[in-house]
Batch of 2 targets.
Target 1
Amino acid sequence: MRVPFWKMHGAGNDFILMDDRALALPAENADWLVSLARRRTGIGCEGIILLQPATEADFRMRFYNPDGHSAEMCGNGARCAARLAVELGIAPARMTLATDAGVLEALVTPDTVRLALPDPTEVRAYFDLSVDGAPISCGAANTGVPHVVLELQDLDEAPVMRLGPTIRNHPSFIPVGTNVNFVQRVDQHELRVRTYERGVEAESGACGTGVTAAAIVMALRQRVTPPVSVATLSGDCLTIGFSMQGDRVSHVTLSGPAVHVYEGTLPLPG
């Protein structure tokens, strides 16, 4: 048996999406998910998304990392899921989608998809993290999934593959680990960000929740003012909006492209 899939990307963050409203896809088969996500022998992606029925929203988005494990949500993935849901007649242009991080709102337009994210938690503008016996100044925010933020002067020289895995697996973040974002300030409304992504275990083309966490931390440091435009590794830009009252951040939105790459069919296992 073969089932349809759609390959999409949000600012270079790429996904395989499938319509699972019949709840017939074997999402518990981690080996199958891993085989789909492999770049050389599968379709290749940074996340697999199933669109499923929901009682509390227009649909439910189930998100799986390339390692076959589920994650609470994904900002760019949710924006791609929202566009596909409109095209398949699953949801209207202004919709709600259920995730393991809560029910989110999205608005799909011809050029962009705007996603309303949950209010961030575990927000810290500054803290020191001991790495190899030396302190590293970091920030942090959970924007649906956990993120650490490191500010650099030159993002092109960021030690993404050296420090990323070390911080991602740091004892301070056991048992779930964290994503790691390297950020450079351009001006009061613009940042550049590179992300080492948990579950991908490599640098991501873009990370929606990661650039959001970076913008929030940098705003708390009074380094930027919303709205914040963030240039990602892919060269695409995402726009982060939010309100601030002192140290409290709310009304967070993530806006940017959600683009089709191609579509096809794939065999089910067994």
Target 2
Amino acid sequence: MENITETKYWHTLDDGRVQCDVCPRFCKLKEGQRGLCFVRARENDAIVLTTWGRSSGFCVDPIEKKPLNHFLPGTPVLSFGTAGCNLTCKFCQNYDISKSREFDKLAQQATPDMIAEAARLTGSRSVAFTYNDPVIFLEYAIDVARACHARNIKTVAVTAGYICDEPRREFFAHVDAANVDLKCFTEEFYQKLCSGHLQNVLDTLVYLKAETDVWFEITTLLIPGENDSAEEIHAMTTWIKESLGPDVPLHFSAFHPDWKMLDKPNTPPQTLFRSRDIALKNGLHHVYTGNIHDHNGSSTYCTGCGEILIGRDWYELSDWGVVIGGNDEARCKSCREPLVGVFDGPPGTWGRKRQQIQFKT
């Protein structure tokens, strides 16, 4: 299978180098060089994607694991990624994939039609681009999305949102839902620990809210002593409320030592509880805790009467207080207050199962 595909987001500089314009890193490459992401390279005086059709593995997960709590709850999603990343997060929890510089990590090959058909055969309602950031394999992701939509299967992007304006518009035109990783709310953190910039991610969030119909949720991994202060959580959640509105779900996730940040302790549950309280007091309607066992912080509540609408135990649904009406509108069973999100009937029953998928080549 051919793994090299042409790209269009690049231009030639006066000094003869070619600049990649997919993300704000703007890698400037000589012939044969690769960008920091490792998968976009200069060949024959153009930028090409070197991992089209190659994956680090396929797995059917619960949609809640992405995490998405307001998008087709309880349903299975076929997840896959490639290799490489355009950020350098020292705390990466998928570093064996995202930091890979070896193509032997990409053991499986699959065309977009093969992926979409596998999703259909496994009963997956959606396909997720995840494990590493899909913006760096944009062309492959878009081709997969087209194949999925032809079969009425939705697409999900799990992304850090570190992408330039023009490719951002093309990419999200093919995406139905996203979880955007807002790593912190300070420029210092982004520069020191991720080699990136905060504003570019905020621009993606504002774009999604103001100019698209993509359903999106936000996740912040809380790292002790780095981005978990009450002041920073207050500033971040105030910005979300004012810039995106109160209904964008926010997930606070617990950190565990990994990759190049082994000197930090696990996030205490109390930090997540406190952060959730701050966000709720600042007017956000749906705030969740992740990577810990917390039924209260994992469940969805009615903004009208306060009743549990969707109870969760890890990735397993328990309570269901939602009624689905015309136009797939979700409402509280008790008071009929609307519930934001994407729903199209009763909840799925996939639970916390995880199913590996192998393609024959």
